[in-house]
Every structure is written in C-alpha cells, then in structure tokens.
TrEMBL record:
Organism of derivation: Camelina sativa (False flax)
Domain CBS: 711-775
Keyword Membrane: yes
Protein family according to the UniProt entry: Belongs to the chloride channel (TC 2.A.49) family.
Membrane topology field: Multi-pass membrane protein
Keywords: CBS domain, Chloride, Chloride channel, Ion channel, Ion transport, Membrane, Repeat, Transmembrane, Transmembrane helix, Transport, Voltage-gated channel
Protein name stated in the entry: Chloride channel protein
The UniProt record lists the keyword Ribonucleoprotein: no
Source domain of life: Eukaryota
InterPro entries in alphabetical order: CBS_dom, CBS_dom_sf, Cl-channel/antiporter, Cl-channel_core, Cl_channel_pln, ClC
Transmembrane segments: 91-115, 135-161, 182-207, 251-274, 286-305, 338-358, 378-398, 459-481, 547-564
Main location: membrane
Localization of this protein: Membrane
Amino acid sequence: MMDGDRSEDHHDIEVEGHGFERKISGILDDGSVGFRQPLLARNRKNTTSQIAIVGANSCPIESLDYEIFENDFFKQDWRSRKKIEILQYTFLKWALAFLIGLATGVVGFLNNLAVENIAGFKLLLTGNLMLKEKYFQAFFAFAGCNLILATAAASLCAFIAPAAAGSGIPEVKAYLNGIDAYSILAPSTLFVKIFGSIFGVAAGFVVGKEGPMVHTGACIANLLGQGGSRKYRLTWKWLRFFKNDRDRRDLITCGAAAGVAAAFRAPVGGVLFALEEAASWWRNSLLWRTFFTTAVVAVVLRSLIELCRSGRCGLFGKGGLIMFDVNSGPVLYSTPDLLAVVFLGVVGGVLGSLYNYLVDKVLRTYSLINERGPRFKIMLVMAVSVLSSCCAFGLPWLTQCTPCPIGIGEGKCPSVGRSSIYKSFQCPPNHYNDLSSLLLNTNDDAIRNLFTSRSENEFHISTLAIFFVAVYFLGIITYGIAIPSGLFIPVILAGASYGRLVGRLLGPLSQLDVGLFSLLGAASFLGGTMRMTVSLCVILLELTNNLLMLPLVMLVLLISKTVADCFNRGVYDQIVTMKGLPYMEDHAEPYMRNLVAKDVVSGSLISFSRVEKVGVIWQALKMTRHNGFPVIDEPPFTEDYELCGIALRSHLLVLLQGKRFSKQRTTYGSQILRSCKARDFGKAGLGKGLKIEDLDLSDEEMEMYVDLHPITNTSPYTVLETLSLAKAAILFRQLGLRHLCVVPKTPGRPPIVGILTRHDFMPEHVLGLYPHIDPLK
C-alpha cells in the first residue's frame, strides 16, 4: 500500500470507555510505546507493492499532496497575504510558464542540432568509404560509431540516472496522477535525458527523441518550480510560493506540453497531448498557461531555425526539426479510396495492438536483465546496437540497384551527401539503392523520404516490405533498453512504410498519392499503439502542414483505436501497469459497485490526540511509513471523541524538530502559530525533506506534549463507510486526494473507521480480498 499508510500490528492496551473500545497511549511492559487508536475488528492488510520501476531502476514510490491542506498555518498565510503578494504569485506563474517554454525550446533545438551533426558525420564517413568500395571499413566505421554512442548513452543511464531510461511519458503521466518516486524529475535525470537521448538517437537505434522531450520538459518545469536544487546550490528563495505539489503539478503539465511542441513543432498538439494523455486534472486557467508555454516554444524554435539557414549550424538544416511537407495539390478521393482508408485503419489497429503486446513481453524480459546491475544494462544496449547496425548495413545488400529517374538533375542521383532519397551504396553510376536511403539515414530523414510524393516508383514494393518488417521488430526490441528512447518515431516509421506499401499495391485503383498513404498508415499505427485521437490528429496535421487531410486522418485514427481497443490497452497504459505504478483511472471498475468503502479499508489505524505526547508521535513515525495520521479531539478538550482532521508526516517532523513542546497537557496552538510560518512547512523538492533520523530528542522532551491542531487539516474529505466503492474511487481521483477518511454511519463508535489511499482501490488489493468477485461485473 502506498506511503506505508498501513503497518504491522503493534502492542497495545485495551480499555473500556465512552461507549467503545479504544487503545491508549503509554509505555508498555516491554518498553515500547503504544499508539492511540480505535480498536478495529479487522486483520486484513494491503500487500500491494510500494516499489515501482522508474526508467530502468526499481525504487520506492509515494503519493503527492495535490489537495489544498487547510490547516491553521495555511489559513493564516492566506489571510495575511497582501495584494502585492497575490500579484507577485500570479506574475510568477506566467513568468515560469514563459521560462519553461524558453528553456524547452532551446533544449529541443540543441538536441536536434547535436543529433543531426553527430549522425551526419557518421553517415558521411560511411558514405565516403562506400564510394571508395571499402565496404568492410565502412561497416566497421558505421557499427563502431554506433557502438560508441550507444555505450555512452547506456553508461549515463546505468551509472548516473537510471530513471532517465525509456521515454519518460509513463513516469510523467504517473506523476501528474499523483505518484512520486525518487529522481523521477531530478536535475541528474534531466542531464542524462538530454545527452542520453542525443547519443541514443545518433547511434542509429530505432527510437525517437520525442518521448524523452516530454520528460525533459517536465524536468525543466520541476527544476524551476521547486526553486532550483539545493544539492547543486541552485536555489531561488523568491519561488517559495510554489513549494507545494499542486502548483508544481501545473508547471509540470506545462513542461510536458512544451516537450511535445519542441519535438514536433506542434504547439496546439502539445496542449492537446497534455490534456488527452498526460494530465489527470485540467481547468481553464491551466489551459491558458499551457497554450502560452507552447506558443513560446514555437517562437523560440522558429527564431533559432532562422539563424541556421545561413549554414552556420553544420549539417543541421539539411534535415532539421521534424516537418514533413505533404503538399501534393488537391486531395481528391472516392468510395474505393475510403474503403482503402478503412482497411488501413483496421490493419493498423491489429498491428498496433500486436506491437503493444510484444513491447510488454520484451519489457518484462529486459527487466530481468536490467535488475542484475549496470554492467548487464550496458551489455544489453551493446548487443542491440550491434544487431541494429548489422540490419541497417546488411539489408540494403538484399535489394537490387535502381536506375536513376529521367529528368533528375546531375549530381542529385546518386547523391553525395548525408540526406537523400537516391543513395548510391554499392550501386554503379546512375543507379541508387532505395533501401539504403531509408536505413542509412536519420529517422527523421527516413520519414521525410517515405512521406515524399515526388514519384511512386522511388521505393520498390519489396523494399517497403523489408523496411517495414525490420523497423517493426527493431522498434520492439530496442524499447526497454537502458537509454532514453521514444516510441513515436518507431511507430511513425513502421506505419509510414506500411501505408506506402498499401498505396503501391493499390496502384491505379486509388486516386490518393502514395505519400498520403504513408501519412494515413502512420496515423493508423499511432492510433493502434498510443490510443490517442484528437492530439495525434492535430500533431500529424501540424507535422505535414496539410489541413486537407483532416477528414481522412480523423477516420483512420477512430477506426484504428476502436479495433485496437478490442485486444488490449494503449502502450503507455500498459507500461504504467507493468512498471507497478498505482495509477488511478478516470473510471471505476464494474466490480467496485458491489462493494462499499469499509470493505477495503485495511491495516491498523494509528491516530493521535489533539495534544499528544512527543514520545508517542516519535515512536509512530519511527515504526511506520504512514504519511497521514488522524487527529482525534477527546475529553477534556471536547465533550466526546470527534475527528479533528489529518496531520501529515512531513508537518509532524517539522513540528518536532522545532521543539515547541509543553510540559502540561494543554492547548497552546496560538503560540505555535506566532513562532512558526507557513513556509516552514513547505514541501522540499526531490525528497530532501526531514526524516525521523534527523530528529534529536532527549528523554525529557519525549515526556512532553505538543499541540497538533495548528498543523491539522481540519476539513479533510470524508465519506460514510457505506458509500459505494465505485463512487469513492471517482471522488478520490477527481479531487486528486492522497487520503480519504472513512467515518462510521452510526453514533457511539470510534470517530473514524479508516483511511483510504490509492492502493486501496487497486484491483490486486480489492480482488485479493474478495477473490470470488467477477472482475467484469
């Protein structure tokens, strides 16, 4: 169960009093400290894991506090804020959105600049050796460069930031759902994500930099939002307003949208991606800031690209940022064309769901290798690199040379350079090898070649078939190794080659250009794997700059998603589940309507009195990993036992460290409010908050008392124990809660039955308690 919100049973003393059995605090015979808690007649425990895979490493996870914690400090701070401070807070939100867009745009540009130049140097070296007919030297130069770059990327991930491996989109999606893990958005992860992605893409792997750019944008937003990093001595005190999970969540949503905008030059698509796929909570004010952020990215990219048009950026500009111009004149289609589009959607959905199935199996296999240590991670990357190099260099030998088209200008076929459709490879003069034009190119240039509409005969049917099979399976076995890797580009490559292959097979039966078939094939594969519709549609239209394709792209996306949903879930949803991240879906499972809240409350509930002994709190914090504790008002402070609210572990630690204790068991919350500030209880970034080991309390202080009311959220969300579990799950998800209090329906009982956390809603916990329940009913 998440956050350690339940724990093992502890020693206790039972007494009768006030109409119900209760446990009292005190030193027991064996010297341990008992906890003040209602006696609950249940022994069930939540055994779901608190460990998940982040990147390529297993690490502990916990929940985030997206709920506004309305304790006395929060209320005092909000009432005392002046107009200038409110204006400063509003201005900083927009200023940070601007900085996130600016930084993400610059990083996206430099990422492309580095990939184009590194990969371009490698391909030019290989091409020059091929022209001299030094084939073995060309292969070893090509494979050697790939191996060096792959090893560099794997070493960064294995030794510096394992959380940077993979695309990062499942981790960002989980974070925005309320799940945190160490280093998921750390500066070290950002560093490795940037350079690891550059090395991995330049190494010739069938991966993209688009997924890592989403994670990169989120890391940049987190770095700015938490006021920098104390570890690296980069802090900004004026960002104290954002030391809470709620504001950081909004900034990271802006960062994820900025990452998509920087990767695809698709600002509107970035906003829709964050809305449809990444974010779990959305509101109008966040929509405005996200749109502003992606607009900044678009302006920054266009400005930087203009600087490179003069040729001052090396090989960048010949490939450049992704932008595929599919402009072939009017898009005319008839009934047979629509049937062909339906066929593309159906087959794309089937192949996309198969792709997800195989990716899941490969990831589970690779996890067994990766968990054996950094050396095995690097060896796996090296093995996949050698295999990829052999395929890229060896498969073009299987195809025949093709005479250059008539009318092509001299020097253009075969071309002498890095990026071209007409690559010579081993062919004689005035001939080109079409498969090498796809395999011995950067992934972006290969997609441009597939999307081209210049001539339908540039790529043979056999070439397209070989390339499709190679890219389809190389993309599957590459995703999951310990390098930053995205899924967008492999899926677009496979879909574009499949779509162009269908266009070639149809020939004169269709009025659509083969380049448009490539676009529709890419859309069908994206819909079959990602299961997104609106955001993918807009991203593809922004990529291709062809609004006339809108109806056909919409149709093929809807069909492919519908077909694929019949077999399995989207690839990111599958990866989130496979990694063990307890993601809260936006809907309740059918079997939850047969249960009520009290049916899944698990473990022993530890609670504190409003004025509690320091030793009792210290012992509870030491012996458990709970992050939320009910606070009970009891006589003599009230007439009867009442639920006062919830106190967070982090706030209790700060309160104990301040040592604002009393020798008498009396209320003195007003004194604590005067001696502390709300910012003292602000959340530290990257897990740098206080730990129980940091406290230094004497035996005398252990016997003193502390008033918990100032730090207690006196308005927690509560539900009756008889509430449907389905309604409780929807409430928990939509409000972004970390703790949901379950209270009794009838009087004369303990004031709280238990606390629900996200792990209590997980299928493995619920179905483990009630195995006889049909999960589909």
